[in-house]
């Protein structure tokens, strides 16, 4: 299982989580085996809904694909896994930790969420 498969599914509108095949639950996207039982992992569909766990606003342009300022979110999905994502339409009031977000799209190798 690699990140490209996760991004390919997200590009079709199907966000997913890594989950233990034995039923231990969801785990980190960087995991290669279940941290509880060392068993294999599989991709499971995710709702695409979550809350902001933390975020950072970047005021320097580190890549030509992202014009500053842009907001990077650390989102905790309803299923329990967490992932880094970009905030779509960052204009308006800044986000707050705990704000609800929803999967919006993929682009330039990143997952984008919008405030609900």
TrEMBL record:
InterPro entries: ChsH2_C, NA-bd_OB-fold. Residues 44-101 form the ChsH2 C-terminal OB-fold domain. It holds the Pfam family OB_ChsH2_C. This is Zn-ribbon domain-containing OB-fold protein. It comes from Hyphococcus aureus.
């Amino acid at each position: 299982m690699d990140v490209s498969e996760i991004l390919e599914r997200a590009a079709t509108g199907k966000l997913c989580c890594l989950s233990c095949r034995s039923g231990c639950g969801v785990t980190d996207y960087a995991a290669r085996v279940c941290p509880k039982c060392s068993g294999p992992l599989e991709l499971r569909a995710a709702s695409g809904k979550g809350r902001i766990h933390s975020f950072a606003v970047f005021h320097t342009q580190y890549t030509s694909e992202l014009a500053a300022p842009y907001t990077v979110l650390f989102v905790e999905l309803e299923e329990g896994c967490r992932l880094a994502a970009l905030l779509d339409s960052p204009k308006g009031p800044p986000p707050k930790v705990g704000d609800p977000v929803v999967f919006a799209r993929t682009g330039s190798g990143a997952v984008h969420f919008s405030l609900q």
